[in-house]
Write a structure and sequence with these properties.
By secondary structure, this protein is an all-beta fold. It has one helix and 31 strands. It is globular, with a radius of gyration of 20 Å.
């Protein structure tokens, strides 16, 4: 799994709805993508995301359900006494890893960070405590040699950890930095700078992205990457990722995904043929350009959308698919994710609920055969990590 910045829940301050004109979609089968070459760059023109057929669904029963109410309260990721979950990853050997901050229930013990290893059925195998200066690990990826790269924004470091959880080395970073995802050659993406901008599409927040070796040296500087108009609304990760020998970026305010090689050369542009509807100044004043109501960040940290639809987080999976989520309007409660194949051609979509029986759902990762969902119950103080089968729809 590769994923494309933890954010906080925002539920207030939302007002009027943005209303889109009716669109009569043609069958997706009739929307044959146009593929062409432009100065050595492959261009794939796809149909609008809004008409993508449902090609995937969640399985009826999860294969893993970690830290539910039936489990030991002392090992819950979100229990008040023990801390909360920051990042999770299914490892290549079938184990499941959760990195979290840990607050002991005894007052004389100090807070610490930990790695929790589970087997493929969700049974807790071991807990490895990470030594200071680790504070709050919030990003995980695994290199081909099974080395773990752990990003820790608050600790201002990147940890290099072996497959058993032992720390090999740590790489100090400036404030706000973090690791993101791994390339196939053992290097990884890291965010080394953050610019808030002026919270508009014309000047959105930007991240400075580089690739690094495990000794901390820089391989390539990808430069400053503009973030989405609503800063990954409804998700927990930014809109870029590494996969194999390629770097993916979904730039702000543009209905496309750009694919680069590990040296930063642009190889492919995957476009979504959506008609962008401009949000006027009057509509912005009424709140129609605000993030979806289930956005997980305060309005003060979310740049208002200037056009609809809004494209959110982008992720990749082991099969080489790219997943993009989109919001057609500000009251879009059920974000849809659309999958593109390794060739850039649209496959279809899946819709994942954001609220079920009073619990908040958030997609954290796509795998070739599963979807990883974070489920939070604020009243019960539990934070579950659930893995659902990813089912193809005929």
């Amino acid at each position: 799994m590769s994923v494309l910045v933890p954010v906080r829940r925002y539920l207030a301050g939302m007002v009027a709805l943005a209303v889109l004109p009716a669109v009569v979609p043609r069958p997706i089968a009739a929307q044959v993508p146009a593929v062409r070459d432009s100065a050595g760059i492959r261009i794939v023109e796809n149909a609008p995301l809004g008409i993508a057929r449902a090609a995937f669904a969640l399985g009826d029963k999860p294969t893993i359900d970690l830290s539910g109410a039936e489990n030991n309260p002392d090992s819950q990721f979100y229990a008040q006494a023990t801390g909360y979950h920051w990042a999770a990853l299914r490892l290549r050997d079938g184990r499941f890893l959760v990195a979290s901050s840990w607050r002991p229930s005894t007052e004389d013990a100090k807070s610490r960070s930990q790695l929790m290893y589970f087997d493929g059925a969700g049974k807790l195998l071991s807990i490895v405590h990470l030594p200071p200066p680790f504070r709050s690990p919030n990003a995980l990826c695994q290199t081909p040699g099974d080395t773990l790269i752990i990003g820790d924004t608050n600790g201002r470091l990147i940890g290099v950890v072996d497959n058993a959880g032992s720390v090999v080395t740590t790489i100090p970073l400036n404030g706000g930095s973090r690791a993101e995802s791994c390339f196939g050659d053992g290097t990884f993406l890291a965010m080394v700078g953050f610019d808030l901008g002026d919270h508009t599409v014309e000047g959105p927040p930007r991240l400075h992205i580089v690739s690094k070796r495990t000794d901390g040296s820089v391989v390539h500087d990808f430069g400053w990457i503009a973030q989405r108009a609503v800063l990954s609304a409804g998700a927990s990760v930014p809109s870029f990722a590494a996969r194999g020998s390629q770097f993916f970026d979904a730039p702000s305010g543009v209905p496309e995904i750009r694919r680069y090689n590990a040296q930063g050369a642009l190889n492919e542009i995957v476009r979504m043929n959506d008609t962008l509807l401009r949000v006027t100044t009057a509509q912005l004043v009424r709140g129609e350009g605000a993030p979806p109501i289930h956005s997980t960040m305060p309005l003060a940290e979310a740049a208002p959308a200037r056009t609809w639809p809004v494209y959110g987080t982008a992720m990749t999976d082991e099969a080489g698919r790219i997943w993009v989520n989109q919001y057609l309007r500000s009251n879009d409660f059920s974000p849809t994710w659309t999958a593109f194949g390794a060739d850039g051609v649209m496959i279809g979509s899946i819709t994942v609920p954001v609220m079920v029986a009073g619990e908040s759902w958030r997609v954290e990762a796509f795998y070739s055969d599963a979807v990883q969902v974070s489920i939070i119950n604020g009243k019960a103080h539990t934070h579950r990590i659930v893995l659902y089968p990813l089912v193809r729809v005929p």
